[in-house]
Write a structure and sequence with these properties.
alpha+beta; eight-stranded antiparallel β-sheet; 171 residues
Length: 171
């Protein structure tokens, strides 16, 4: 599901004036990618209610995670945590298989080559938020949320390819 949202740009939407991964909310027009927030149920208080494969993968891959919270989502589990001062979301399917990791951070943590690709075209725009998405196969996808005055754009960068994603409500 996450792959479809990122690859097609479907599901990008504004929600309550908040940007995904931002607790303060930057603007009422700030776009986000993740519609999965709607699929959350209450967090899971006991790890024995979670597939052991997911717990093992998370423990091995994110040993230095803090603020760890598990949730059930449609077709699996989600962990929200902080890793090296970066808000992180890790998704697993019902069988405990890792599906994706999304890291939410500011421009300063964006790799220089990705920043250069975005800024070479949208030089006047401010990079507001970056969503770095990793899947079990393939290279990372960077969804860079940019803003200039009242103009918001979501830029998708993968393997040196840069494309502007469609925003909801814009045709």
């Amino acid at each position: 599901m996450i792959a479809a949202l990122l690859l097609t740009g479907a599901g990008a939407h504004a929600q309550g004036g908040k940007v995904a991964g931002d607790d303060q909310g930057l603007s009422p027009k700030a776009p986000i990618i993740s519609k999965m927030e709607k699929d959350l149920s209450a967090d899971i208080p006991y790890r024995n209610n979670i597939n052991i494969k997911a717990i093992r993968h998370f423990s091995n891959s994110f040993a230095n995670a803090s603020e760890e919270r598990w949730f059930t989502i449609k077709n699996g589990y989600m962990v929200k945590c902080v890793v090296d001062s970066v808000k992180t979301r890790v998704d697993y399917d019902n069988r405990g298989q890792w599906v994706a990791t999304i890291r939410y951070y500011e421009e300063e943590k964006l790799p220089k080559e990705i920043r250069a690709l975005v800024k070479s075209t949208w030089f006047d725009y401010k990079i507001v938020l970056v969503e770095e998405v990793r899947f079990p196969t393939g290279s990372p996808v960077y969804v860079v949320h940019i803003n200039w005055m009242d103009d918001w754009k979501n830029i998708r960068v993968q393997d040196g390819t840069v494309e502007e994603m469609d925003l909801p409500g814009k045709n």
